UniProtKB/TrEMBL annotation:
GO MF term set: glycosyltransferase activity
EC number(s) reported in the record: 2.4.-.-
Keywords assigned by UniProt, alphabetized: Glycosyltransferase, Membrane, Transferase, Transmembrane, Transmembrane helix
Protein name from the UniProt record: Glycosyltransferase family 2 protein
PANTHER family listed in its UniProt record: PROPHAGE BACTOPRENOL GLUCOSYL TRANSFERASE HOMOLOG, UNDECAPRENYL-PHOSPHATE 4-DEOXY-4-FORMAMIDO-L-ARABINOSE TRANSFERASE-RELATED
Species annotation: Pedobacter jamesrossensis
Location of this chain's protein in the cell: Membrane
Membrane-topology descriptor: Multi-pass membrane protein
Amino acid sequence: MKKLISIVIPAYNEADNIFVIAESIKRVFSTLNYNYEIILVDDGSADHTLEKISEYAATSDNIFFLEFSKNFGHQLAVKAGMDHAFGDCVISMDCDMQHPPELIPDMLKKWEEGFEVVYTIRADDKNLSKGKRSSSSLFYKMLNWLSDIELEPGAADFRLLDQKVVNVFRNFHENEPFLRGLVKWLGFKQIAIRYNPASRFSGKSKYTFKKMVNLALHGVTSFSIKPLYSAVYLGFILSLASVLYIPYVVYAFVNNVEVSGWASVIMTIVFFGGLQLIILGIIGIYVGKMFMQTKNRPNYIIRSTNIPVR
Ligand code: UDP
Ligand code: MG
């Protein structure tokens, strides 16, 4: 019996990419001795993505789709695909050809060698805009500094997971999973391979600056409570400073040395007011997460699918 490989592809307004990616995966597998299935997850697209997928699915029996009831985001789209994948291993990749399907044979080779997680690291892409590159490198620096997991810069959501690992993931019900971090956190036998990203085949990136900032904030706060400690440390440092400063103020008062300084008082108030708000905000983010998670709502909602009940 040939092994079955599931390919999970999230798609958000990718109508012009569906055919291209599916065909190139088909080409790659024509040289391999595996069965494969493609699970395309339509993440609430507003264009003809779903029609293109259904059209393509009608031509072969190994193309499946999940249609979300609205846009739930990239991470949940991948999670949904994995939840419904049936393969001996699952490969997740983007829809826009930036993750080269030609890498699949190498990933499968590593998997056959016994690795349970094969993740990929994107080589620095000279084609990407400077802004995107530096924001991406800042993202990883911040994440590693503030959280307890180490992610390599350029770690991509292009990875192979053994069925064992996918089964573990099925029991995760975080309402905003950060897969890159979670996979690292899980353990198992992991290995990285490098690849040169291609440029987007059609359409433009769905990751706006706002979405990237959110992903970064979210990546940090879902993996560590280090930011909460910052309040404690800052508090200690500032209390110590004020303890040293208070005797001076008392001395100046007693000796009637003129204590001028309207400006410095206002600056201090404004500065510490800001600091307190930031720290309050950090605490707020964690409380907010607890609130959202305690509601226990479904993480994503599927409107339709052609995946048979199995
Ligand atoms: N994507 C998604 N939901 C979203 C945003 C993106 O399913 O809300 C998909 C998108 O269709 C693509 C992948 O996630 O397959 C990566 O998105 P994109 O290429 O826009 O990100 P970038 O490569 O620029 O980081
Ligand atoms: Mg892309």
